[in-house]
Amino acid sequence: MTIKQITKCIFVFAALLTSQQAYSSATVESEFELVLPKQFQKNLIEEKWKTLINKEFQANWQFPDQTVSAQNGVQVELKGVSLSLKTQLQKPDLSTAQTQLILQSKDLSAQMTIASISVDQWIEQTVNGITGRFHLQASCANVVLNMKAGMGAFSVAVSPEVASAAAGGEVEDVSLSWQPDAWSVQAFNCIGADGFSDIVNEQISQISMDSAAFVNPKKALLISYLNEYVGKINFDFSAPRELVSGRSDIKVSMMVDSFDDTNPEQMIAKGRVIMTFTRSSQTGSKSLTLSKDDPKYSASTQAMIRLPGGLAKEIITQAYSADSWVHQFYSNQISGFSTVMNSRFVQWFVWPELMDYPKSSKFLFNVYSNKDPKITGSGLKYGVSFKLLSQMQAPKNGKYIPFMNFVVPFSSNVAVGIADSKASVKFTNTSLDLKYSWDASYVKKYSPKTRFAGSTIEDKILGAISGKTMSVALPAIPLMDGVNLKVKKASTLSNSDLLLQLAP
Q1: Among residues 178, 206, 235, which one ends one of the domains?
Q2: What's the structural domain count of the chain?
Q3: Is the dihedral angle over the CA atoms 399, 334, 432, 366 positive or is it negative?
Q4: Domain boundaries, position 328
Q5: Partners of 146 in the beta sheet?
Q6: Stronger pLDDT, 281 or 400, i.e. the higher one
Q7: Which long-range contacts (CB under 8 A, 24 or more apart) does 202-208 make?
């Protein structure tokens, strides 16, 4: 990243790698320690639950058959009882001290279906002093009740639950109630003893008048149904993750090896970041370990990831090893070059050959190095030495042709800062030694004005870089499916490890 920014600032660093290279594959494996405070995990799952608000909640719950007592000791059997709900769940404004997520219904609609209501019983009845036994047998089928609009309420109380490598939720309570006379009954048919429909209507009336009597015995079952539903909305921290790389030749994955959730305040995941550089000029693998010294974390409600202090150095070393990379860009992407192109007066003194090209011309730059970079330092401060080679190409007759060649030994101190998902890079004590030559084929064909004020261009380059700060957006870290964490802040710990503070 840092070296790429350098190449975009120095417009005379242009080179085309013309020889065919036999690339090797190098691997860097680094330990990491991810600290996830329990409150942070709870906040994540609460954010995930908010997606429930954006879609209709639907349920179709089946209840066990039951027997209820009617008048005169008649035992009535209710079979195939089911309740379907449709509603929009809402999260009301709650105090920050609230430990539960309360989801309440809006525009609740409900339908209760009882497949059959029946009686099959011998009863004794005394009439005029004479006691007789009668076989009471009757049934009604497909009894359907519809809830009237605005007469019912439904809510769920959910608490975040964190255990080992997963974060999810548990339904702690459910409330379902309706006002008296909330149900309207569709027409139904009965067979058997006369008057049984009156008993059925009595049972329907009891259900309608007393929601608690119907719901409370079934609350445990309702909670189990809802836990099954909520259980589909959880996070698994243990699955390997592929990270997005800015270069196709660099593959990055993140793998968790172990979890420690014995601390009631936080969970710590330890694992490895594995980086494969498929075009590296180097071979083999290298492992980086975290410091064994106590990192002495400060108390935080934010997620943090600890990395070895030398990781950035190793990444740059491998990513920019000799003959493994080429950066290409155009002259209009470089402010300093645009200044020269827009002034014929400046061109005359420092680069007269440019006067033969329209001011709108876009020259092509390809940059690479045939030497490994030399990098010192760790954490957020480095010293960088680089030998950059280039070939600058000029637009001629609709295509690009070789124009000039440059060799630029470059060195600088680099300070890296990270804030709000952006990395800033500041160059100080910068030096370079610009060497140039004209492409032989261009000289032979076009007989150019070969005067070139190398020292003046060199000074302009140094002025554009030294003491300046450049920024670049950082990609998010995929913590788990659907959750990406942004790097908000970076610091170096007392044990020299690097600490990144993360946020959703």
Answers
A1: 235
A2: 2
A3: negative
A4: 22-38+237-503
A5: 111, 184
A6: 400
A7: 202/70, 202/71, 203/68, 203/70, 203/76, 203/78, 203/117, 204/143, 204/145, 207/112, 207/145, 207/183, 208/145, 208/178, 208/180, 208/181, 208/182, 208/183
Q: How far is CA 342 from CA 60, 220, 346, in A?
A: 72, 78, 9
Return the amino acid letter for 476: A
Q: Which of 212, 235, 258 is the last residue of a domain?
A: 235
Runs of H (alpha helix) within 116-260: 196-209, 211-215, 219-230
Q: How many CB atoms lie within 10 A of CB 298?
A: 9
**Do 243 and 305 touch, CB atoms closer than 8 A?**
no
Do 244 and 134 share a structural domain? no
pLDDT in tens, 297-312: 766 778 889 999 888 8
Whether residue 107 contacts residue 114, with contact meaning beta carbons closer than 8 Å, is answered with no
Q: What is the largest CA-CA distance in the chain?
A: 135
Report the predicted TM-score, pTM, of the whole model to 2 decimal places: 0.61
pLDDT tens per residue across span 141-150: 999 999 999 9
With contact defined as beta carbons under 8 Å apart, do 1 and 472 qualify?
Answer: yes
212, amino acid identity = A
The 10s digit of each residue's pLDDT in 462-481 is 776 777 777 777 777 777 66
**Residue 218 confidence (pLDDT):** 92
More confident of the two residues 398 and 461: 398
- Taking the C-alpha atoms of residue 206 and residue 66, their distance in angstroms, rounded to an integer, is 15
